Amino acid sequence: MKVSTTLLTVVTAAMITGVPTALMAQSLTGAGATFPNPVYTKWFDAYYRKTGIKINYQSVGSGAGIRQYSEGTVDFGASDGPMSDEQLKSINGVVHHIPTVLGAVVLTWNLPAVGSTQLKFDGPTIADIYLGKITKWNDPRIVALNRGARLPDQDIIVVYRSDGSGTSYIFTDYLSKISPEWKEKVGSATSVRFPVGLGGKGNEGVTQQVKQVEGTLGYVELIYAESNKLPFAQIKNAHGTFVQPSLSTVTIAASSAEFPKNTDFRVSITNAPGQYSYPIASFTWLLVRPDTKDAAKAKTMRDFLRWMVTPEAQNMAKALLYSPLPQKVVRLIDDRVGTLTTGGQPIGK
Questions:
Q1: Distances 318 to 194, 245, 292 between C-alpha atoms, Å
Q2: What's the CATH number where 143 sits?
Q3: What are the tens digits of pLDDT across the range 75-105?
Q4: pTM for the full predicted model
Q5: Most exposed residue of 51, 225, 272, 345, measured as fewest CB within 10 angstroms of its CB?
Q6: Same domain, 219 and 151
Q7: How far apart are CA 182 and CA 144, in angstroms?
Q8: Are 109 and 210 in contact (CB under 8 A)?
Q9: C-beta separation of 190 from 67 below 8 A
Q10: CA angle in degrees (0–180, nearest 5) for 40-326-246
Q11: Domain containing residue 337
């Protein structure tokens, strides 16, 4: 007797999750941040192999993710920058920000003259480069931070995100805390008007601009620099220490986060206190509906979120240089996921 592949997949999913097949959605759609796309890709593949549930995700940038969630064209959104109060008001606050992992935004460059030397930057210098006030690689302020480095008399070609981007939000949030001039003239958002430079779409686009154009300086998520064998800088933190972006230094930054009772999880950990905190770090979030009319999709979303914070899933994040969520955050997420409803009623087991 032949059994269809589709039927076998559904039966297998029901056996694993314990959910009646009639109450299971076999797919979800999402869109948004490129920052966590490598780990989301790995998670969604692993979850499909485990349950037969397909999660189709478009890595289109946080701005697009917020827009598509707000318009109701996807089952969930994804963003590295939390929705603003104005954005929340436009949808009557109907969203849960669910943290997924932590990551680092790094400065990377294409400058053969410095060889394998790891450069160092502080916040005011980065801000003035992106403001167009520092224009040469051998500017005295960069030289003073990098004694011994062979910095050439060459123009700095700034690269930034051209699309609505959570990576840009994290970067500009940091610069706004460091530089009053940046805060006044540019500010922080998923999309800002950069005073100088070249735009690249997505972390992928910025990475390619840096790889292809000598003299460039750009900002990308750590895994994009690592996987493309691009150098990345040590950044001076609030304590005055030059810190390497890593799992541990991002986790230390996250430990400073305070979550009040009934938190909406919209917290910033850029320029966090602590001797070893990496200063350009952030949570990244899924945007999830508190109440979903489709009972099957509500259950499928809830079950994925519960799996996402398990050690199995969080350890996959570590392998891709994302820091796992602190246990205190995992407990808060578990409580919040338990409040999700369908048609105003609790979601069944």
A1: 32, 13, 31
A2: 3.40.190.10
A3: 999 999 999 999 999 999 999 999 999 999 9
A4: 0.89
A5: 345
A6: yes
A7: 22
A8: yes
A9: no
A10: 70
A11: 5-102+283-346
